[in-house]
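Re: your question from the hallway

Yes, I did run it. Sequences:
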Amino acid sequence: MPEAATAPAARATIGDSEFDRDTALTRRAPGVYAIALSAGWTIISAVNGGYLLAVLGRALADALPHADPFTISAHYLTASQPGPAVVRTDVVRTGRTLSTGQASLFQYDDEGREVERIRVLASYGDLDTLPDDVRTTARPPAIPPLEDCFGPEDGPAPVDGSSAITDRLMLKLDPSTLGWALGQPSGKGEMRAWFGLKDGRDPDPLSLLLAVDALPPTAFEIGLKGWVPTVELTVHVRCRPAPGPLRVSITTRNLAGGFLEEDAEVWDSADRLVAQSRQLARVRLG
Amino acid sequence: MPEAATAPAARATIGDSEFDRDTALTRRAPGVYAIALSAGWTIISAVNGGYLLAVLGRALADALPHADPFTISAHYLTASQPGPAVVRTDVVRTGRTLSTGQASLFQYDDEGREVERIRVLASYGDLDTLPDDVRTTARPPAIPPLEDCFGPEDGPAPVDGSSAITDRLMLKLDPSTLGWALGQPSGKGEMRAWFGLKDGRDPDPLSLLLAVDALPPTAFEIGLKGWVPTVELTVHVRCRPAPGPLRVSITTRNLAGGFLEEDAEVWDSADRLVAQSRQLARVRLG
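Structure:
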C-alpha cells in the first residue's frame, strides 16, 4: 500500500493528549494552582462537569501523597466559564493507604473577586496496591458492538448550542438510547454508549471522572428537554482501566420533585467495573 | 379491659425522642457546636456512621438557611468514640433554593489536641417546596410483611461486641437476608429490613441519614466477617418521609480489591423512594 502523502498523527498517550493539556494546572504555591479552563469541553454551551471534576482531581493528585481518586464528591455551586481559574487544595488527612483532601475551583467576577464554582471532597489511594480479589457480581451492560452504535457525527446536531466536547470524544450511543435524537424518546431513563477520547488516548483514573458525565442526559430519553444541571456528583474509581474503549451505562430511576439521579457504571475492555458514580441533577419539568 | 398499673410511655415524637436527644448540639459560637456523642448508637463497638452523619446533618441544618439535606457526602477519617466532640461548620454558598455547607466533627486526643473524625460537604434545600411531580420508576423492595421479619431480639446475639444501637432501633430483617446470623450466608450481597426507631419516633430527613447505615453489612451475607468500615457515604434525601416504618434495601455488586460499595434505598409507608445512598467501605478479605 503506498504511503500517505502526510503521515497520520501519532495516537495520543496518557500524559500527552488533549485531555491532559486541557486539565493541566500550574502550581503557583503550595495548594494553589492556576488553569485556563478550555472551551473545548462544553456541552450545550456549559463547561462539562466531568471535565471540571477531572481538573480538580488532577490538582488533588498533586497535592496528596496518593495519586488515584478512590472516592470523590463535587458540589457544583455556580456555572463555570472557559477562561482563567484557580484551584485551591487542602490536605485533610494523610494515611498509609488513603489520604483525604478538599479542593475548590474559583473564577473571577466582573470586579475581579473570586467566585467559587465547585467544591470537592475526596479520598485518594494507590489503585496498583489493591489485591487482585475480584468478586464483582454486576455484569457489563448489554450494548451492541461499537460498529453498530452511533455518534453525533452520524447525524445532524440534535441539540442547540455549542457542544465542542463532541469534537474531543469518541462517543457511540446504543441505538436503543438514541430515540431522543430522532424525536422519539423511549420514555426510559437510560443512556448507554461506547466512550473514548477522540485523539486515541487510553483511559486512566482521571479520565474516568470525565467519562461518567460525558453522555447525553437520561432526561432526554424520558422526553424532557433543556439543561439538566448537576448539583452534586460522587464517583468511585475502583480499578485502573485497561487500554481501549469504555462502556458507559447510565440509569435514572427516581425522577421526582424536580430532581433526578443519574447512576453511571463504567466498564473497561477487560470487563472490569472500573468506576461507579451517582449524580443529583435538577430538571425543568413540563 | 382493666387499666395497666402504670401508664405506658408516650410514643416519642420528632423533636422529643432518643434520636433527637442524642443528636442535639449546643451552639457555642457561630459555626461551632458541642455535643457528647452517645454510647447508645454503637454497632460492633464502633459509633454508627449514620448516627454521626445525622449529628453533622443537624449542625448544618442550623448553620444553613435551608433545613433539609438534599445531598450530603461524608468522608470518615478516624474512628469516633462516645464522648465530647465539636462540630465546626462553614457556609459555602447560599442560594434561593439550595445552600451548600461544609462541616467537620472533631474529638480530642490524649494531649487534648483536636483530631478530625469526619468531614462533610452537603447541599440543603426545602423539601416542602418541591413540586409534586413524581415519575419514579424504581419499585419498593420485595420484603415480607413486618410481622414475618426478624430482629436481633428474636435470636441470640450473632455478633461479638457491644451493639447498643440495636436497643434503639426497630429493625426487622427479611429472612432471606438473615442467613449470616445462622451460619449460612446466602452469598448474595443483599440486606433488607423494616426500619424504625424503637421509641416510636416517626422518620424525618435527618433520621434517614441514620437509616441508610443502620443495617448489618451486606458483607455478612457474602460470607465475610468482621468490621466493614465506611470510607465515604453519600446520601440523597428526595422526599420528607411519611409517618410509619421504613423499608431499607441494600445491595452490593462490586466487591473487588478489598473494597465494596453498598447502595441503599429507603422507602416510606407511602411507597415513596425517600432516600438513596451509596457508601464505599473496606473489607477484610479471607
